[in-house]
């Protein structure tokens, strides 16, 4: 007669008086243990569990607790200079099978779950009405004036136009109000041979929309110079 039983997470084929090494059990040496998760039983007739056989059990005695043989765990990575060597000994228990019961094994009675205690009723407090607070009105941010194409002024190229915008002169109106000395100071690093004496006059005509007069003036200029 033999049985296939699950012991400490492993399945074993056991028979009476057989000694088996299993994962370490919690019970002390010399104590008896019962395993009721019997998956298969052969007593002249094979009985299969679904998954376990109801009423079947295997009783064993713990002979001793011990450690298994040392297992070497070696890890290596090629061309990385990585080598790690570790040893491991598994904790085991040696047991001897004393009996195999086909039916009538008594299982430990399951503990009755205690009914949860009823919590004392909680008094509901009247909700406090929150006073409405007027949300502050959002003030509209001042709109920035749209930059003009300063390159329409005779003598101003892309680099100078970019420098003027960075210096705070972004529109024809800004340029018309600026003094030539101030303009020269702003474009000092990129001015080259440009003389901005006529730029405010040209910007004034552009700002007023007098494009024909601006063209006539620019026809008389040479690179922004009169």
Can you describe what's shown?
The protein is α+β, with helices and mostly antiparallel strands and 226 residues long. It has five helices and ten strands. The strands form three sheets. A four-stranded antiparallel beta sheet has the order 2-1-5-6, with no helix packed on it. Strands 3-10-7-4 form a four-stranded antiparallel beta sheet, with no helix packed on it. It has a two-stranded antiparallel ribbon with strand order 8-9. A hairpin with a 4-residue loop joins strand 8 and strand 9 (82-88). The radius of gyration is 49 Å and the shape is elongated.
Cα gyration radius (Å): 49 Å
Could you say which overall geometry the principal axes of the C-alpha atoms support?
elongated
Helix percentage range: 10-25%
Q: How many distinct beta strands?
A: 10
Give the number of helices: 5
Order of helices and strands: EEEEEEEEEEHHHHH
Ends apart, CA distance between termini? 122 Å
Strand content: 25-35%
What structural class do helix, strand and pairing data support?
Answer: alpha+beta
Task: Identify the strand order in the major beta sheet.
Answer: 2-1-5-6
The biggest sheet amounts to: 4 strands, antiparallel
As residue ranges, the low-confidence spans are none
Whole-number average pLDDT? 83
Quick summary of this structure?
With 226 residues, this protein is an alpha+beta fold.
């Amino acid at each position: 007669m033999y049985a296939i039983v699950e012991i400490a997470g492993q399945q074993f084929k056991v028979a009476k008086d057989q000694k088996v090494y299993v994962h370490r059990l919690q019970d002390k040496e010399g104590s008896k243990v019962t395993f009721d998760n019997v998956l298969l039983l052969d007593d002249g007739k094979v009985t299969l569990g679904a998954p376990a056989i109801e009423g079947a059990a295997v009783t064993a005695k713990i002979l001793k607790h011990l450690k298994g043989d040392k297992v070497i765990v070696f890890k290596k990575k090629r061309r990385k200079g990585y080598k790690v060597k570790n040893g491991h000994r598994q904790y085991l228990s040696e047991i001897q099978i004393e009996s195999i019961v086909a039916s009538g094994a008594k299982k430990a009675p399951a503990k009755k779950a205690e009914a949860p205690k009823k919590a004392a009723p909680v008094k509901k407090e009247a909700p406090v009405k929150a006073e409405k607070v007027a949300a502050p009105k959002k003030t509209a941010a001042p709109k920035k004036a749209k930059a003009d194409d300063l390159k329409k002024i005779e003598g101003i190229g892309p680099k100078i136009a970019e420098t003027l915008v960075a210096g705070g002169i972004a529109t024809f109106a800004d340029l018309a109000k600026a003094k030539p000395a101030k303009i020269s100071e702003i474009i000092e690093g990129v001015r080259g041979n440009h003389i901005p004496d006529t730029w405010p006059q040209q910007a004034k005509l552009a700002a007023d929309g007098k494009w024909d007069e601006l063209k006539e003036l620019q026809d008389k200029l040479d690179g922004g110079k009169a």
